[in-house]
């Protein structure tokens, strides 16, 4: 990978659910020149896998695909202890009645797609037909029994009076496994981590500071969400309060189970260890 004239490229997911970690993150204060690349998860996933980004939050499943080239940043994730409110399946009938039907998948995130497949096929024993679609609920449901939306598309659709049953996949996962679900993780290219340990410490500290500041005062995030997405202050206060941005033992255990099931179903070709960059500049491998 070239050094892009010494520019460090950091990805940023274009969804409200990552705002707490980025809202007070100021790349201009870092000791090296950094450029931000804001995209939907699918594009950031691809760019990290191809090596054209140095560091980025990506879908948890994308980490599973590229774990040999990635290191996870400590204590950063987008997780849910129960319901997530933005990974939603819309259907005309309850989930157990559509598990053998036709399901439209959003084309924006691998983690949620594979979480749905694990739930439908492993937990419920279903064998549906899947097809990929742009994230627009009306067109998705024209020829489908159910449709998966994530992020801000799911949030907006959940406010509409469409009459569909709305199933929160985070809630289903929790009820089935007893664990919360981690949907996104912060990853860095292993080679970058090995060559830039001091800068990476700076970046990790800056993200941690942003997370702490955001969660100690949600009002700026709530106001920004109402302005840009819509909805009420009460909705967004509940939304942000319900998410978990840690990546501690509980989140790691839930993600390890997700990877185990994905491997057993053939969605991943290998088992996936959690390679976590630690404060003493060494990579800690969790089996």
TrEMBL record:
CDD domains: PBP2_Sco4506. Keywords: Lyase, Menaquinone biosynthesis. Coiled coil: none annotated. It comes from the Bacteria. GO terms for molecular function: hydro-lyase activity. The keyword Lipoprotein does not apply. It is an enzyme of class 4 (lyase). Pathway: Quinol/quinone metabolism; menaquinone biosynthesis. Its EC number is 4.2.1.151. InterPro entries: Menaquinone_biosynth (IPR003773), MqnA (IPR030868). It catalyses: chorismate = 3-[(1-carboxyvinyl)-oxy]benzoate + H2O. The keyword Nucleotide-binding does not apply. One of its GO terms (biological process) is menaquinone biosynthetic process. PANTHER family: CHORISMATE DEHYDRATASE. Catalyzes the dehydration of chorismate into 3-[(1-carboxyvinyl)oxy]benzoate, a step in the biosynthesis of menaquinone (MK, vitamin K2). Belongs to the MqnA/MqnD family. MqnA subfamily. This is Chorismate dehydratase. It comes from Paenibacillus zeisoli. The gene is mqnA.
């Amino acid at each position: 990978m070239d050094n892009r004239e010494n520019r460090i490229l950091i990805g940023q997911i274009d969804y409200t659910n990552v705002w707490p970690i980025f809202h007070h993150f100021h790349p201009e204060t870092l000791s090296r020149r950094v450029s931000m690349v804001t995209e939907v998860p699918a594009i950031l996933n691809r760019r990290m896998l191809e090596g054209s980004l140095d560091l980025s939050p990506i879908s948890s499943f994308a980490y599973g695909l590229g774990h040999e080239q990635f290191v996870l940043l400590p204590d950063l994730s987008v997780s849910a202890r129960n319901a997530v409110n933005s990974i939603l399946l819309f259907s005309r009938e309850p989930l157990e009645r559509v598990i053998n039907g036709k399901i439209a998948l959003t084309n924006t995130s691998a983690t949620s797609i594979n979480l749905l497949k694990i739930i439908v096929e492993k937990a419920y024993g279903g064998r549906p037909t899947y097809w990929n679609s742009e994230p627009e609920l009306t067109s998705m449901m024209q020829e489908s029994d159910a449709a998966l939306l994530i992020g801000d598309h799911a949030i907006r659709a959940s406010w509409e009076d469409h009459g569909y049953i709305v199933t929160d996949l985070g809630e289903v996962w929790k009820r089935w496994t007893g664990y919360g679900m981690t949907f996104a993780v912060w990853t860095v290219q292993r080679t970058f981590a090995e060559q830039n340990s001091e800068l990476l410490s700076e970046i990790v500290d800056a993200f941690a500071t942003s997370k702490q500041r955001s969660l100690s005062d949600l009002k700026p995030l709530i106001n920004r969400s109402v302005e840009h997405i819509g909805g009420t202050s009460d909705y967004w206060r509940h939304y942000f309060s319900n998410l978990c941005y840690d990546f501690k033992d509980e989140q790691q255990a839930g993600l390890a189970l997700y990877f185990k099931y994905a491997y057993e179903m053939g969605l991943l070709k290998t088992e996936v260890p959690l390679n976590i960059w630690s404060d003493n500049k060494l990579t800690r491998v969790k089996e």
